[in-house]
C-alpha cells in the first residue's frame, strides 16, 4: 500500500495559505501490511480495519480505513480531502492543548497518522 500525508502545520499563517494543501506538497511512502478480513467498525464514510504494518520489526498495529462506497463520489480527491482534514485537526488540537495547559483544562488527544 501507499500512505500519503502533508507536512505538519507550524503556524496559523500556513493554515491560511491557499497553496499549502497543494498536491506537490504531499509526501508518500510505500509499505506492506496485513489487514483483517472484516471491519471492526464503520462510520458514515469509511470502514475501519485492524491491520499490521509488516514492514516494521516488530510489526506495528494500525488501523486502515476504506471508503464505504467506491465510485465517483469517493475518488482520489476524497482521499486528499481526508488527508487535509487530518492535518488541520492535528494542528488545531496542538494549538488548543497549548492554551488548555495554561488554563488547567483537559487536553485533546489526537492521534497523528
From TrEMBL:
<dbReference type="GO" id="GO:0004674">
    <property type="term" value="F:protein serine/threonine kinase activity"/>
</dbReference>
<dbReference type="InterPro" id="IPR011009">
    <property type="entry name" value="Kinase-like_dom_sf"/>
</dbReference>
<dbReference type="Pfam" id="PF02816">
    <property type="entry name" value="Alpha_kinase"/>
</dbReference>
<keyword id="KW-0418">Kinase</keyword>
<protein>
    <recommendedName>
        <fullName>Alpha-type protein kinase domain-containing protein</fullName>
    </recommendedName>
</protein>
<dbReference type="InterPro" id="IPR004166">
    <property type="entry name" value="a-kinase_dom"/>
</dbReference>
<feature type="domain" description="Alpha-type protein kinase">
    <location>
        <begin position="43"/>
        <end position="104"/>
    </location>
</feature>
<dbReference type="GO" id="GO:0005524">
    <property type="term" value="F:ATP binding"/>
</dbReference>
<keyword id="KW-0723">Serine/threonine-protein kinase</keyword>
<keyword id="KW-0808">Transferase</keyword>
Amino acid at each position: 500500500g501507499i500512505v500519503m500525508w502533508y507536512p505538519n502545520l507550524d503556524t496559523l499563517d500556513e493554515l491560511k495559505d491557499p497553496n499549502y494543501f497543494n498536491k506537490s506538497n504531499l509526501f508518500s511512502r510505500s509499505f506492506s501490511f496485513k489487514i483483517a478480513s472484516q471491519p471492526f467498525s464503520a462510520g458514515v464514510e469509511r470502514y475501519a480495519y485492524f491491520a499490521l504494518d509488516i514492514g516494521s520489526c516488530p510489526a506495528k498495529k494500525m488501523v486502515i480505513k476504506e471508503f464505504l462506497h467506491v465510485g465517483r463520489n469517493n475518488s482520489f480527491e476524497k482521499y486528499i480531502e481526508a488527508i487535509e482534514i487530518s492535518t488541520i485537526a492535528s494542528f488545531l488540537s496542538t494549538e488548543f492543548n497549548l492554551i488548555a495547559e495554561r488554563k488547567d483544562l483537559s487536553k485533546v488527544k489526537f492521534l497523528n497518522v
